Amino acid sequence: MSARYFGAAVTRLEDARLLAGKGQYVDDIELPGMLHAAFVRASFAHGRIRSIDTSDALAMPGVAAIYTMADFEDIAHGPMPPMAPHPLLKTPITYHPLANTEVRHVGEAIAIVLADSRAKAEDAAAAVVLDIEYLPAVSDATLACDANSPRAHSQHTSNIAATMKAGFGDTAAVFAKADHVLTEHFDIHRGGCHSMECRGVVAHIDLLTGALTISTSSQSPYMVRRHLAGYLKRDENDIRVMTPDVGGGFGPKANVYAEEFAVALAVIKCRRPVKWIEDRQEHFVATTQQRGQTWTLDVAFDNDGRMHAIRGRCIHDNGAYAPYGLILPATALASFPGPYALEALDLSLDVVLTNLVPTSPVRGACRPNVAFLLERLADRIARHLGIDRQEVRRRSFVRADQMPYSTGMKARDGSPISYDSGDYVGALNLVLDEIDAANFPARRNEAKQRGKLRGLGIASCVEDTGLGPFEGASVRVTPAGKVVIASGASSQGQGHRTAFAQIAADVLGVELEDVTIETADTAKFPLGISTIASRIAVTAGSSVQLAAHKVRAKAIAFASHQLEVDEHDLELAGGAVHVKGIPDMKIKLSEIARTLSGNTGMPMPGDMEPDLAATAYFNSNALTFAYGANACEVEVDPDTGDIRVVRYVVVHDCGRMINPMIVDGQIRGGVVHGIGNALFERMIHDEEGQPLTTTYGDYLLPMASEMPRIEIHHMETPSPRNPIGVKGAGEGGTIPAAACVISAVEDALGPNGPFIALHPISPQQVVTWLDRN
Amino acid sequence: MKASPFQYHRPQTREELGALLTRLDNAKILAGGQSLMPMMNLRVIAPDHLIDINRIPELAGIRETAAGIEIGAMTRQTDVLSSETVRSRLPLLARALEHVGHIQTRARGTIGGSCCHLDPSAEQPAVSAAFDAEFIVSGPNGRHVIPASAWFEGLLQSALGEQEYLEALRFKPWANGHGYGFAEYARRHGDFAVAGGIALLEGDRDGRITRAALLSFGVESSPRRLTEAEGALLGQHVDNLDIEPVIEAARSLEAMEDAHVTAGYRRHLAGVLIGRALKEACATLERQS
Predict the structure, then answer these.
(1) Separation of CA B50 from chain center
(2) What integer pLDDT is reported at residue B289 of this predicted model?
(3) Minimal CB count within 10 Å: which of A10, A259, A440, A592?
(4) Distance CA A584, CA A225 (A)
């Protein structure tokens, strides 16, 4: 078996179709008699529903039906099932498909309007008369911790939904003997996610099978099926969920949403196909957001800058509901201690309910927060001691010769977390070389001549990837000799088809173009989890490899039998099994597949099982740890406070790369995500939980015009924990990026400038810091 | 995000347009649509009638007349930006247009649309005010001219009457070789500016300032000429201008504030940017020898 494709930057098989505008997204689906849905949503953050009067709206032209939760009483009732139950959450805090008694954030869906066009549905939605009793709202998680604060849920006695703990070692003892202790307070702002395609659902009852058939722009079609089946008390087989082309996920689309349930219920009720396409205004108030947290941390370190222990507390802004359980705050705790070899850690995190849109993982989940905390602390220590920032890291990082390294933390199942492989100091050294840190002072001086303050920032991270338990795959050779891969791993544009095809084509000796993929359809593959947590290359990629090897073994066994040649003397190439060194002595895979498809009345040759196909579920029971070191340079205009990232260099190690071009794309996009977090994206709410930034004029996303060229260098330390040696790559660009940019801005502002412990930062803030205002 | 119901009209001539404006209540004129369509789709405004003037050819085009350079209201920003007449005679306008949105939006957006919408941060109204441009308006009582000094009535509010439409803007070019400067600060390229400054200068043979226009935009609800500071520049030598009073004048404006920006920061920027614009105007002012 030769690696013709694995590791090669081959062009993506998906792109010809997508770039030609031939993608098929949810909104491209048209069904006969389809109705269009618009939601009536809460316009203030907390209130008790007294009555909903739909009579005027129902009389409007083109309106077919308007449903509230009460209308679904004969089908289902109660709150939605939690996606990820957690023992600390004694009662799940989930939405109803439509709010029935209380609304708890601006944008919560109250009624669904069905009309023959979206515009008419919106007209009617505006005519639904709501009588909602105002309840005081809480929009700030820190204030929400106060015993006298209004409750986000009026029936709760406290806004603290759970207190989570993590740690190891004897923190008190390490702090007691430390040379130095510093305390810092950090504020990491809530932001959105903003995939290019918003969410959307088209559902109908399939007349042939009677199955409730749903197309949804989701990362988790199998979770939609599972939880909808549970809610409707149906068999999973009576529900088919598909995800057609999806225009980006990045985390929020991993949730199962109230709108998916509401549309399904509406279809069952009205017996007509229904389409709902989330518009961008809805996206700002109905799609989950990311990682608002404040932290107070103490760090213990010695005179050399070696970091020994951290302790502290986090207030985690959960938003109004916890549809995804405690996954997001759990990733915050689990991301410690990052690349640092700590002797002790003691953390406590309060999950706090607020009257805001729920938070859930967005690219990196809370890993970027933790990278920000740790990297800021490292810079802080360096400043305190007057030593180089990189020295703190070199002295504090886990060393390559310590691998595999048990951090002291425990995984969800109680097993010790152990980093599999890597060279964190090596990555840091490489990135400093690549950005030419040694000559930075000259660049700083040159910028000064132009009136600009130039700064150099560094940040590293470690990222757990390949979250279990599995994503399976089946590999089948068709009688035409084509290879079809089916998997439960849905794609949101990452290039799964290309990557899986690269793996399978090498094993089976076929051309890349001969491989197609069937995913994103619960009718095509029995099980799936979610495309989240940088896990698909590890889980599904490994399953493709294992399944392809089974197919390969079967083809060889078949050929061995037919050619009467020992199996060890056979190999696969050019779409055939042939005798090593004698290419002409062969049997084509198409012929094997045809024969194994069976002929009426004829026995299977060699008593073989029918079908040249196999299924595998790689058991991903140990995480793989990708890591990276970033460095960037910014220039600050001291007059306007403008911050421009002028260089950005990434060193990244995600083990073996299936396709370096796809990896580069993931990292580049990820870095942009992080730059957005550091400098641009600010989701502002007033004290009453009213969002103030719900258009792209107010909520600033990073744009190409402001982005630097992003240089990427790879290290390749194969993971020993899966058959293809890969680690995940989807989030590693984002995780250290905000920390890196902030580090550079702080460096630009100089030794008399502030220690920057928050993001995003604004030009206005910079001017204030420079005391020029 | 669909607009509320409206009736769509597409007149082919100015006469048809005039008749529609006279006849219809709660009508909005659709020019390039770069602000209007989002506002309608967000249901910020809900006109009953939308009058699309994109098919009236006479409303677009740039021509030089004895009275000045006339730019039709429907002239696309991209056409204004690439016009040789504009680039040579009104270089400030071309300079400012580079900051207006992006190539894609400038291909649709019109100078007249921007000057009727009057976003306080918009560049084209600001340049019009700096030039004391004339707004040529048609209505039931025929054609008349509104000077820039009377055009700006407030936030998003022009002097255009309900039954009137803007035909063209007329700019009187400054002397050949005049100095011009433009500076704005926006978070991202093409965004509405947080604040901006404009300067125009003419000088005599000795380099003494004979004429000046100074303006801040994005600071107050309308572009604001700094007339006292303009007067103070007259007679000063271009190599030795006292810029501080100009900066101070801009910093003393009544600045707006919003969810992102305090009035204090906006005033600070107003000062920085008028200073930059003025320095650029000094640098571009050609010395007569």
Answers:
(1) 24
(2) 58
(3) A440
(4) 49
Nearest CB among B259, B262, B272 relative to A639 is that of B272
How far is residue A724's CA from residue A543's CA, in Å, rounded to a whole number?
Answer: 10
Nearest Cβ partner of B5 from A123, A279, A639?
Answer: A123
What CATH class is the domain B59-171?
alpha beta
Cβ-based contacts of A675 with chain B (< 8 Å): none
Using CA atoms, how far apart are residues B233 and B256, in angstroms rounded to an integer?
Answer: 27
Mean residue pLDDT of chain A comes to 96
pLDDT of residue A773: 41
The beta-strand segments (E) located in A483-569 are: 483-487, 515-518
User: Cβ of A119 and B265 within 8 Å?
Assistant: no
CB within 8 Å: A767 and B265: yes
CA angle, A191 then A193 then A197, to 5° = 150
Of B38, B188, B261, the CB nearest to A706: B188
Q: Output the average pLDDT for chain B.
A: 97
The pLDDT tens digits of the residues spanning A467-502 come to 999 999 999 999 999 999 999 999 999 999 999 999
**Contact flag B2-A700 (C-beta cutoff 8 Å):** no
pLDDT digits (tens, 9 = 90+) for A69-105: 999 999 999 999 999 889 999 888 999 999 999 999 9
Whether A700 sits inside 8 A of B191 (CB atoms) is: yes
Which H or E run contains A259? helix A258-270
pLDDT in tens, A446-458: 999 999 999 999 9
Q: Do B264 and A118 touch (CB under 8 A)?
A: no
Whether A700 has its CB under 8 Å from any CB of chain B: the answer is yes
Q: In CATH, which of 3.50.30.30, 3.40.50.410, 1.10.540.10, 3.30.43.10 is domain B7-51? A: 3.30.43.10
pLDDT tens by residue, A172-183: 999 999 999 999
pLDDT per position as a tens digit, A288-346 = 999 899 999 999 999 999 999 999 999 999 999 999 999 999 999 999 999 999 999 99
Q: Measured between beta carbons, which residues in chain B are less than 8 angstroms from residue A764?
A: 260-262, 265
How far off is chain A from B230, nearest CA to CA, in Å? 23
Smallest CA–CA distance, residue A683 to chain B, in Å, is 10
The fold for domain A468-617 equals: Aldehyde Oxidoreductase; domain 4 (3.30.365)
Residue with tokens 């040249």: A612
Whether A468-617 and A293-410+418-466+623-769 are alike in CATH topology: the answer is yes
Where residue A626 falls among pLDDT bands split at 50, 70, 90? Answer: very high
Are the Cβ atoms of B265 and A700 closer than 8 angstroms? no
pLDDT of residue A509: 97
- Residues of A in Cβ contact (< 8 Å) with B190: 703, 705
Q: What is the DSSP letter of A290?
A: B
The CATH class, in words, for A34-135+196-248+252-286 is alpha beta
Letter for the amino acid at A160? I
Top CATH class, A293-410+418-466+623-769: alpha beta
The torsion of the CA quartet B196, B202, B203, B209, rounded to 10 degrees, works out to -50
